[in-house]
Write a structure and sequence with these properties.
With 306 residues, the protein is of the alpha+beta class. 41% of the residues lie in helices and 13% in strands. The chain contains 16 helices and 8 strands. β3 (41-44) and β4 form a beta hairpin. The longest helix has 15 residues, at 139-153.
Length: 306
């Protein structure tokens, strides 16, 4: 196994931030975690560790909350951008004032979890890479590939985390190395196409909304589902619904109607939440309800042994 590029530890840059409302760091960062063994994000009793790529380079970030104040420490070339992004990352820029609960379940979750907000990284590449790896495979497969690529081609940083591979690193990965990481040809081609225009794709986080998603979809292999998954995390898009997801329509249907829905049915039931459809889904998923199982789990494939 290749050793990832390492950043020499130096004294961290720090900032303290007093949010206007209580923040649940773990809940806000959980959408960024790619499986329980994600090497780029650690959530624990001592706070959260996050590693990311920024415009000035990779960096690691530690977040801890005490007496209502967030203490952030960052290392690496990306330390300053990471510190600057802390309020948005923890939902400070998310405005849910226009959100109205049209279902009792959604109203109850909003009452019980008033701190539920949408965080935004402000950066596209890392979440785009992860989303493409999750296309049309099980979570187990995608998370295994994510771990392998981050550990072999990412950047080792201070703390228990490493940054995901940069676009340049991705373009240097050979066909055999992709195969060993369990990434099939279709996802490989989409990642490479995105890496080739990664700098231009960062503008999607500035455009936001439909325009930002459309910019992402100009890349071959980036469809509606992938663009929505990126939008939800990169700029906290409150209306980006994950159409095409294997689980979400069923979860929404069983939670709100007691029956399974397809994508069209999900969009119909979410229509009253226009402008906040993803926010509604987040409230529904936060209720922790499941859906009936009608058969055995789908068996993950392992492309490494094909």
């Amino acid at each position: 196994m290749m050793t990832p590029t390492a950043v020499t530890p130096l004294a961290p840059a720090t900032r303290r931030w007093a949010p206007e409302r209580a923040v649940d760091v773990a809940a806000l960062l959980r959408p960024l975690r790619r499986g329980p063994g994600d090497p780029c994000l650690r959530l624990g009793p001592d706070g959260a560790w996050l590693a990311a790529n920024t415009a000035t380079g990779p960096g690691s970030l530690h977040l801890a909350v005490s007496a209502g104040e967030v203490t952030a420490s960052a290392w690496g070339p990306g330390a300053d951008p990471l510190l600057a992004s802390v309020p948005a990352l923890l939902g400070a820029e998310d405005d849910d004032s226009g959100f109205v609960a049209h279902h009792p379940l959604v109203a109850e979750v909003r009452r019980r979890k008033p701190t539920l907000r949408l965080g935004a990284t402000g950066r596209v590449w890392d979440v785009l890479l992860a989303a493409v790896l999750e296309q049309k495979v099980t979570g187990t497969e995608a998370h295994r590939s994510w771990r392998d690529l981050a550990q072999r081609f990412g950047t080792r940083l201070p703390g228990p985390v490493c940054a995901p591979p940069t676009p340049t690193a991705v373009l240097g990965i050979t066909d055999w190395q992709w195969h060993k990481a369990g990434v099939d040809g279709a996802r490989r081609r989409a990642v490479i196409a995105a890496a080739q225009v990664a700098c231009r794709l960062e503008r999607a986080a500035e455009l936001k909304g439909v325009e930002g998603r459309l910019l992402l979809r100009r890349v071959p292999g980036i469809g509606v589902w992938t663009a929505a998954e990126v939008a939800q995390r990169a700029w906290g898009d409150p209306d980006a619904v994950s159409v095409g997801d294997f689980h979400v329509p069923g979860l929404v249907g069983h939670a709100l109607l007691g029956r399974k829905l397809d994508d069209a049915g999900m969009l119909e039931v979410l229509a009253p939440y226009a402008g906040h459809r993803h926010r509604a889904v987040r409230h529904i998923l936060s209720a922790g309800l499941g859906k009936p199982r009608y058969g055995p789990r789908f068996s993950p494939r392992d492309f490494r042994h094909l």
